[in-house]
């Protein structure tokens, strides 16, 4: 029996997760709430609710040898430190080269993930998705959350006593 894996997000980590699942003989299904891959690196003029994005002038701050997928180097003609559009181009090349797009359900929001009632025995999860106003539930043997950490701010208020009394002069 092939084990099914839900992957949430089709950015850099989500794409690597799809590929890794395939290499391990698993059956991945990736849910991406937008209409394209790239996650954070996919710049859009108009911000999308619940999706972090870079600004138009962003360049990578790590060299291409450190940024690339280990088994898919950047093309030689790409600059060492590149504009976000070149990184997005590379991400698309990676997905196309390994034929990953067919495992992605675009414009699909994962609204809930919960352990199944028989989880102690099966280890399975219910993944509830929404697409075009229609809710669906699917059963998976594993779930990988690859949605990033740049959307919701994490402000450790308790670590900064007096933070709300600070006055900017």
From TrEMBL:
Protein known as: Flavin-containing monooxygenase
InterPro entries: FAD/NAD-bd_sf, Flavin_mOase, Flavin_mOase-like, FMO-like
Keywords tagged on the record: FAD, Flavoprotein, Glycoprotein, Monooxygenase, NADP, Oxidoreductase
Lineage: Eukaryota, Metazoa, Chordata, Craniata, Vertebrata
Gene3D superfamilies linked: FAD/NAD(P)-binding domain (3.50.50.60)
Cofactors: FAD
Superkingdom of source: Eukaryota
Natural source organism: Anolis carolinensis
Presence of the UniProt keyword Oxidoreductase in the record: yes
Gene Ontology molecular functions: flavin adenine dinucleotide binding; N,N-dimethylaniline monooxygenase activity; NADP binding
UniProt family annotation: Belongs to the flavin monoamine oxidase family. FIG1 subfamily.
Enzyme Commission numbers on file: 1.-.-.-
UniProt keyword Flavoprotein, yes or no: yes
Pfam families linked to this entry: FMO-like
């Amino acid at each position: 029996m092939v084990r099914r894996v839900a992957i949430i997000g089709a950015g850099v980590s989500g794409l690597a997760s799809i590929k890794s699942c395939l290499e391990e003989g698993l059956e991945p299904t990736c849910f991406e709430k937008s209409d394209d891959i790239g996650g954070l690196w996919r710049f859009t003029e108009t911000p999308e609710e619940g999706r972090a994005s870079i600004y138009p002038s962003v360049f990578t701050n790590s060299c291409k040898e450190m940024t690339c997928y280990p088994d898919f180097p950047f093309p030689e003609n790409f600059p060492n430190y590149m504009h976000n559009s070149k990184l997005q181009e590379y991400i698309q090349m990676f997905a196309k080269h390994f034929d990953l797009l067919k495992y992605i359900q675009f414009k699909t929001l994962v609204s809930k993930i919960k352990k199944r009632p028989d989880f102690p025995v099966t280890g399975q999860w219910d993944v509830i998705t929404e697409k075009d106003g229609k809710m669906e539930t699917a059963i998976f043997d594993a779930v990988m959350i690859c949605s990033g950490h740049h959307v919701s701010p994490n402000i450790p208020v308790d670590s900064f006593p007096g933070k709300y009394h600070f006055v900017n002069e």
